[in-house]
Amino acid sequence: MTRILVFIIPFLMVNACSGTGQRSEVSEAPPKVEFRPGDGGFSMYLDGEPFFIKGAVGWDFLDELAASGANSLRTGPRLLDEAHRLGFKVLVNLPVRAERDGFDYDDEVAVRAQYERVKKIVEENKDHPAVLMWAIGNELDHIPGNLDYNPKVWDAVNDIAAMIKRIDPVHPVLTVVGVGEREKEKFEVIRERCPDLDLLGINGYADIMNVPGWLREFGWDKPYVVTEWGPSGWWEVPRTSQGVVIEETSSEKAGVYRERYENVILADPLCIGSYVFLWTSNRQERTHTWFNMFHNGLRTQTVEVMQYMWTGEWPDNLAPRIESLTIDGRNATDDVVLAAGSTATARVVCHDPDGDELTYEWELLPEPEKFAPYAGQGETKPEAVEGFIKSARENEIIFEVPPGADHNYRLFVYIYDGKGNVANANIPFFVNR
After folding, report:
1. Listed residues 229, 248, 280: the one ending a domain
2. How far is CA 166 from CA 92, 126, 401, in A?
3. Which residue, 229, 255, 289, sits at the end of a domain?
4. What total of structural domains would you count in the chain?
5. For residue 44, what are the domain limits?
6. CA atoms within 13 A on the CB side of 255
7. Model pLDDT for residues 65-75, shown as the tens digit of each residue
């Protein structure tokens, strides 16, 4: 079925922080937003000009995001003014709660109160010039452990979508879902139960490669935007025999960012763009490096890849490249086991494309024994082991294995080029007697 979705966005200067709008005297001509069908999919237009979403999820380094060629941000209302200053259009996250947070979609009073809260936020911010679209919640159906969810959540989503379209018919509305092999059928469920959505937001990591096929398998016929994507998730990677997940190096991550962007986001005609995850630094989820595109405020190789994807141009200076990280000649997939109190040799092989002089920093952390059930919420970086290095020589160290047996550790290396770039990698190992 052919459809044309058209939205008119009035541009009025507003201050919208924490859901509060304050109108200004400045106004601009209202551009027209369209999803035009063609070539088996859709294209997005602003005022007749093509607008492919080149966005990120994040709240830090926004000036650098703009300089890298991005044109959009996925965030809450409080950053609308800052986004407008930088020229971003915003996918505005609306605070709709999930069952995993204790919300009960059988509680009609709570559902109505949530509806009214969202309505107030939309009314206060709908005329802000940075608003592009509204996102109703995030992965509302997901309960850790892949437990069954209450399908009434989709009724609540559709009610909110219909309400938003009545009071703000000028901005598209979506909800955000995460997908995997066991969850792909939700595309058909949402299509049937949420007819008032204009498009769909999809969070996907390694599984993003399967999304175009799944959408077509279950009859999705509207546009979609990839609302979260990046490295392989910790639930998608190999593990040691102790069950410890093996993280990709920063260079491996850069490779998969490019592969997934080119083969899905740019290639699928139903896709109108994406928000890469995560444009920040040192956020802990399994590790403090897993999803972050920056480390200690410095750019990893994933940042330059996205600049190239967005602009077609590489930065003047590139990040170091990591080829391997080993302990006693063994890789992470070799299931490294070390004797308590022994010594071992760690070596990283890397190079810098610009020939910059590299410096190395090593850090040893115990592997956490407990993790947050969802999205790393509440996780903190473990306290580092002190004084473990016995000797260091450029890209190699001899270190002392901690004395306590039957524990997992993770050895990190950070490689700096002195030009604002960093590479990082880590290797887990188990300590026995």
Report:
1. 229
2. 17, 12, 63
3. 229
4. 2
5. 5-229
6. 8
7. 999 999 999 99
pLDDT in tens, 342-361: 999 999 999 999 999 999 99
- Residue pair 70/54 in contact by the 8 Å Cβ criterion: yes
CATH code of the domain in which 380 resides = 2.60.40.10
- Distance (Å, whole) CA 190 – CA 57: 24
- 54/62 Cα distance (integer angstroms): 13
User: Confidence band (pLDDT; 50, 70, 90) for 10?
Assistant: very low
Q: Per DSSP, what are the bridge partners of residue 277?
A: 57
Residue 4 pLDDT exceeds 60: no
CA distances from residue 267 to 40, 212, 271, 307 in whole angstroms, order as listed: 12, 9, 8, 18
For residue 75, being part of any structural domain is answered with yes
Arithmetic mean of pLDDT over the chain: 92
Largest CA distance in the chain: 72
CB hemisphere CA count around 25 (13 angstroms): 0
Cα 209 to Cα 378: distance, rounded to the nearest angstrom: 30
* 40 closest CA partner among 9, 5, 93, 2: 2
Instruction: Match 């509440």 to its residue by tokens.
Output: 378
Q: Can you count the helices (H) and strands (E) in the chain?
A: 8, 24
